[in-house]
Structure formats: structure tokens, C-alpha cells
Amino acid sequence: WESNGTSTFGDIAIDRYVLHHSHDLLMPLIHIHSTTGQSKGWVMWFSKDGKAVASDWPEIAKQLNAGYDVISFDFRGLGETRMRYRAVSEDDPSLAFTDESQAYANPLSSVLADYVYNSLLTGRPYFLQMIEDAEIAVRFSREKLHAGSFSIVSDPESALLGSAIASTISGVNPDPHPVGDIMKWSEVVLQRRELWPI
């Protein structure tokens, strides 16, 4: 791992790190915390697009005001680790006209979809890789930042992943206040939905 600098404003600090893992992979991770007082605990925050960004500040501020330290990171292929390509799809020609973020994660034909589908063929499903990324972030936070147990806070579209992470990694608890229902893959199959979150 390497430190990538610190930003402060008021009594809030954002420490940036880059974790090196699995040979050549990089994971940007941020630790957002108060510079005054003791931490009540630790929160892991993520969304379908990766780590927290400026638009997520209201949710992050709630956690900080409640006395928690927050870690947030980019899963492989998301955020700063996005693959800088754009898909052109014969299946969905309108994909070329959508914004870059929507085009990148379109489940029918996109750069991320290709990676996800290829990960199934290689026997290392992307969903399990995301759980592994969370485990790497937790291990780093415990060893280097002296974190304890974590609670997960995620956007509604990431609730299924948050639940899987909490049930897999010891000392990580599910979101205590989930927003909406957790999507079940069995329901997607029974509904014969063509579009689903990657």
C-alpha cells in the first residue's frame, strides 16, 4: 500500500491510499474521519460506481456527525480503476448516445458487462471479486488504520452486494437501515427481466 495524501477542511480529514493486490491490481481507498474526538465505530460506504464522491457527501456527513470513521474504495473496474474504453453495440445502437457512466455499465453490451461475462468464463465471477475487494479493504483498515468491526452503508442498488459482503466477512455487519428491498437473482430469473444491475 502507499499513502496518496491527505485533505482537510474544518475538523474533517480525508486520507487517500492506493492498495496493491493480486499481482498488478490497484485499489484506491479513502478514509474519512474527524480530527477531534474518539471514533464510535467504522462504516464501509460504496455505490454501484465505486467509492464516495462529492455528491455522496450528505450521506457521508451523517456518518461523520454520528461519530463514525468512513472508508470507501473503488471495486476493480469501477471509479478510478475504470477501463477507459467505450463499447459500440449492435444490440443497442442507442448506447452510443447515452452518457459515459450509463454506457460503461449497461448490462446488455458495455465494457463492464464484457468484463463481468468473461469473469464467469474464467471461473472468477465478478460478484465474488467485489467481495474479495471488500475483504482487502477491511484487512488493510484493520491492520494499518486500527479499525474494528464495520457496518455497511450503500446506495439501494448495491444492497445485494452489501448483504453478501456482510455475510462473508467476519466483523462486517449489514446496513442497519437498508433503503428498499434487497434484489434477489431468483426473482430476476422468474420475472424474465432482460435488464438487471451488473
Task: Give a verbal description of the structure.
It is a single chain. It contains 6 helices and 7 strands. The chain is of the alpha/beta class and 198 residues long. It has a 7-stranded mixed β-sheet with strand order 1-2-3-5-4-6-7, with helices on both faces. The longest helix has 19 residues. The model has no long low-confidence stretch (mean pLDDT 83).
**Gyration radius, rounded:** 17 Å
What is the rounded distance between the termini? Answer: 28 Å
Q: What level of helicity do the residues show?
A: 25-40%
Question: Would you identify the regions where 5 or more consecutive residues have pLDDT less than 50?
Answer: none
Helical/strand content category: alpha/beta
Strand element count: 7
Strand content: 15-25%
Which whole number gives the mean pLDDT?
A: 83
Main β-sheet, spatial strand arrangement: 1-2-3-5-4-6-7
Number of helices: 6
